[in-house]
Amino acid sequence: MPPDTEAAVTLRHSLPKQQSNWNEAIRLEPVKRSGKDSQIPIVQQRQDETSPPTPQENFDEWDKKEGWPAVAAGSAIFFVYLGLVYSYGIVQLHLIESQLATVSTLSFIGSVGAAMSPLTGMVVARIIKRFGCRKTAFAGGLFLGLGEVTACWSTGSVPAMFITQGVLFGIGAALLFLPAATVPSLWFKKNRGLATGVVFAGAGIGSAVIALTLDKLIGITSLETALKILGVSAWAISLPASYFLKAPAGRGGTVAEHQRLFRNVKFLIMLFMGAVATFPLFVPPFLLPLYAASVGLSSQTGAAILAAWNIASALGRIGMGFGADAFLGPINSLLISLALIGLSALALWPFASSLGLLIFFSIPNGIGSGGFFSLMPVVVGSIFGVGQLAGVMAMLSTFRTSGYVMVRSYTTY
Questions:
Q1: DSSP string for residues in 169-188
Q2: What's the chief localization of this chain (predicted)?
Q3: Helix or strand or coil: residue 156?
Q4: pLDDT at 163 over 90
Q5: Residues 30, 32, 34, CA angle at the centre, nearest 5°?
Q6: What class does CATH assign to 67-282+292-393?
Q7: How far apart are alpha carbons 129 and 254 in whole angstroms?
Q8: Distance between CA 129 and CA 324 in Å, rounded?
Q9: Where are the domains of the chain?
């Protein structure tokens, strides 16, 4: 009997009788002879009976070119979604000039639109788990454009503006935020900070472009026509972009267990930090145009100041993300961003009574604000892992809701 056959028969007879049915699940192949080969046969499982690959097997290759379309799609979505949020101050200024309502009331409408995203974060995370990122983002694009288009017939009614610019727009923003913020991070490891920075930089660029063009567009046409154009533009950008928000296989993530996270000290620290830091974040984009008008500057100048803040925000998102990858690390970069926000608000804005001082305030404040938003997914991924990115981000966003809504108090006084 050949040695290979003898080895296979010996192994088969050495198995217990109660396990003889193993032959139905495995087959024994003799090892081909070579100088380094062992004489023990190889045990191979059938491919159709093997277990699914472990998550680690799907993480072997990162930073591939297939991830950059997701980065471009996320950046395009933030261009229109956060661009509209940060440019709401222009709409608010024209509504105040038409004497629709008080500053606090109109600011509250804008706050609702911005706060819907963090408020519904955990709900959206479960929607993503059920339907996937593409379908969730597509639905978000529909609601986002619908909120802007219907707002063109609502500029004479506060309740109607609340429903359109607040609720409908906010639902769309909520459904867009998590897919656009988390999917690009799932494709990258070494360049995760840079990729996320590019995604969030779309918000700064979009805000600058919309802020500069919206005021002129309103002057040429009307506020109603401008809102309609913004809504159609939102559809044209966000709906095609949603197609490219596809998570790589095995990295779709799960919804984190709430009770387990609340026993995690690192999560509690991030929860407290995010809730406190969010309070001043939307004050500049909401207030700068109105503040510029209060010190005697024109609406065009106010729009230019807001554009400067948004450009600085875009630079901060990319720069802080690159710094997090290259030498600073995610947490150190986040701390620097928070320091820029606080110091500029305390040391510069109280004395900014001219164009030069307002721009001088806008640059560091915009850099810090942009860095904060772009670094949050990077920090979460580095601490909790990309598998829990969507779930943890959803919970952190939900507990930042109070800061988004409290911007109304800041704009009242």
A1: HHHHHHHHHHHHHHHHHHT-
A2: membrane
A3: coil
A4: yes
A5: 140
A6: mainly alpha
A7: 7
A8: 29
A9: 3-47, 67-282+292-393
